[in-house]
Design brief:
Blueprint: H1 9-33, E1 42-47, E2 50-55, H2 58-77, E3 80-88, E4 95-102, H3 134-154, E5 163-170, H4 195-204
Antiparallel strand pairs: 1-2, 3-4, 3-5
Helix pairs in contact: 1-2, 1-3
């Protein structure tokens, strides 16, 4: 396994928080713009100084947060090569789209603790200890999210009933998490055996707008 560069633990932990926030925003953005759920089931907020769309369904928010936490655990170990948000056909699970993030050059060490109260969106300037320019980091993430949003809007609509999953490709030599098969992004088109995807379909596949009365997800008010 060829790990990425090493950075001071405190700065690495902050960078991981920044990226996982970005990944969460990206998931909500793609679900909205690719029409996997009705537009009326999303609210509009601001994050990274951009207008963003957030699902209001608590179950979907929980799924996304759990999935991103699982990815973060692997990133913290330095085992991830690529992350993909994959759109699947409703019944065949054929791959319709992949939104791939190459993270092979990410640091191998992200620090030993999670910065749960750290909000990277509110950090600006240069970190004197590690030399991290948080303004540049936030601008890069903002630009990436803006490009993803624009690209997703321009694509033709997905077939009705399409679903999605979050996939991770590990670095060479990295062991798969316990209970997870060693499928890679290259084998994903042939009905990937991801229990998370099937669980997601059974919970949310037939969700309809009339469920709008459900309580809202925790909002991104801290990112406004």
């Amino acid at each position: 396994m060829d790990p990425g560069p090493s950075v001071p633990a405190a700065q690495a932990s902050h960078l991981l928080s920044s990226f996982t926030t970005f990944l969460t925003l990206t998931l909500h953005t793609l679900l909205y713009h690719r029409g996997l759920y009705p537009a009326t089931t999303f609210l509009t907020a601001r994050a990274l100084n951009l207008p963003v769309h957030q699902s209001r369904h608590p179950g979907l928010c929980t799924w996304i947060n759990d999935a991103v936490s699982s990815v973060a655990a692997q990133l913290r170990k330095g085992t991830v090569r690529r992350i993909a948000i994959v759109m699947h056909a409703a019944k065949t699970f054929d791959v319709l789209e992949r939104w791939v993030f190459d993270v092979e050059t990410f640091p191998v060490g992200w620090g030993d603790r999670e910065e749960r109260n750290y909000n990277p969106v509110l950090v600006e300037g240069v970190d004197e200890e590690g030399g991290v320019n948080w303004t540049d980091v936030n601008e890069a993430l903002r630009g990436a999210l803006r490009r993803i949003s624009h690209a997703a809007e321009m694509l033709s609509a997905l077939p009705e009933g399409s679903t999605f999953t979050l996939a991770v490709e590990l670095r060479d030599g990295a062991s798969a998490p316990i209970g997870v098969t060693s499928a890679t992004l290259d084998t994903l088109p042939t009905k990937p055996s991801t229990t998370n995807r099937h669980l997601f379909e059974s919970r949310f596949g037939h969700w309809r707008p009339e469920h709008n009365a459900n309580p809202l997800c925790p909002s991104w008010s801290s990112l406004l």
